[in-house]
Amino acid sequence: MTRRLILSYVLLAAFVLLVLELPLGLTFAGRAQDNLLAQVERDSRVLAGLVEERVENQDAVAVAAISESYANQTSGRVVVTNADGISLVDTASPNSNPRNFSTRPEFISALQGTQSLGIRQSTTLDEELAYVAVPISSDGKITGAVRISFPTEEVREEVRENWLRLGLLSALVLAAAASLGWLVARWAVKPVAALEQGAGLLAAGDLSGRAEVDQGPPELQHLAETFNQMAAHLEILVGSQQAFVADASHQLRTPLTAMRLRIESLEDALEVPVDEKDRARLRADAEAISSEVERLTHLVDGLLALARSESSLSLESVDVASVTIQAVDRWLPLAEESRVQIVLDCASAAKARVVRGGLEQMLDNLLDNAIGVAPPDTSIYVSVANASGQIEISVQDEGPGLTVQEQSRATSRFWRAPGAQPGGSGLGLSIVAELAAASGGSLKLSDPTDHQGLVVTIGLIAATS
After folding, report:
1. How large a percentage of the chain has pLDDT more than 70?
2. Mean per-residue pLDDT, 126-146
3. What is the DSSP string of 319-370?
């Protein structure tokens, strides 16, 4: 997070510098080029006025003296031609024979009475030149032309130096922004790190974890105080809930044991000869007690499973496909006894992060519920799929199903569907929901698309290894 904050400060500073310095640099480069052309244009007009009378009189010596004097004082090259475009003076080649410049675009324009200027690359000199060509006229008649050209290297060097200065300024500003960003980020992120450490302790199962934040922005300090209050409440609630479930389970085991002993004694009494009426009464009592014991046993087992699901915070990578196949094999005999077929569609590679032993409990509860509600000669469809980084396990039956309102209440503890068979505890889907949530996943109930029944889907986070 510190790096991201520093990067955000630097990027913001870079954007501001780009918006300010890029137009500044481009403006400087354009102005430097315009100033050079304006200077050359001014000199060309002055020089044309100086040599006007000499060109009209074809006084090449005087024209050469004026042109070479200008060329010696500057770094420019002067070419003066007559009306036919034949050079009278070329300061770059003072002793050469006259040359014909009439085919050059700038001289064509100048000899027609139009000024020509610009910047072009000279192939013969292999350098960039700024040039201005102006006509020489006398009494409205074009008598020749003057062209002055300057190398642009000096101007380009000034532009490069300006860009370098702007670049150095940008580097200093970015360095200052990075330093300031580091100080601000360190000040702001330090309490966030403390919050992360406290949250990590809670995620690992240490409910005593707290975030010690005594500096930083007031908002983060307030957030840390709220986090600590939440952690304290969570510790109290979880502790009291686990203690209640553990105590209830412990207290229920004692009467269950006593009831089992009484049943055994009752069964022994049945071996003593009694009349048929007493025997029927005793047997009915024994069956009622046995049924009640079975119900209480399911209830205690459900409470214990619920307690384990709430306290299981250790996640492990589980081969979902393998565990699902084993669960189906485990419940297949009971399904066959109930004349129910289990159809399995399992992905070949499906690993997920689940609390230890949680997947087996979830599958057992779902298959137990599905077999309990499935009518004879129907099918239960079990599927495992890997969908976009999430492992989905679906158990679909062809039973009576649940209404939308009943589906919303189905994961509540001790809730049982209207018309459910006696003997259940109403904790099956609650246990599945608790285990799925403890694994970082979810539980969803929906209607099948093609027939009556219920689809229960567990979504788990896929394991990377």
Report:
1. 72
2. 87
3. EHHHHHHHHHHHHHHHHHHTTEEEEEEE-SS-EEEEETTHHHHHHHHHHHHH
Neighbouring-strand partners of residue 133: 116, 147
Decide which of 117, 136, 157 is a domain's last residue.
157
Domain identity same for 318 and 450: yes
Side chain identity at 106, as an amino acid letter?
E
Average pLDDT over the chain, rounded to whole?
79
Residue range(s) defining the domain that contains residue 288: 217-311
pLDDT in tens, 36-87: 888 888 988 888 888 888 888 888 888 888 888 888 888 788 999 988 888 8
- For 185-238, the pLDDT digits (tens) are 777 666 666 677 777 777 676 776 676 666 666 666 777 777 777 777 777 667
- Shared domain for 374 and 457, answered yes or no, is yes
What is the greatest pairwise CA distance in the chain? 162
Instruction: Count CB-CB contacts under 10 A for residue 406.
Output: 14
Q: Classify residue 458 as exposed, middle or buried by CB count within 10 Å of its CB (0-12, 13-18, 19+).
A: buried
Domain presence at residue 189:
no
Angstrom distance (rounded) from CA 255 to CA 94: 127
Enclosing H/E stretch for 379: strand 378-387
Secondary structure letter of residue 421 according to DSSP: P
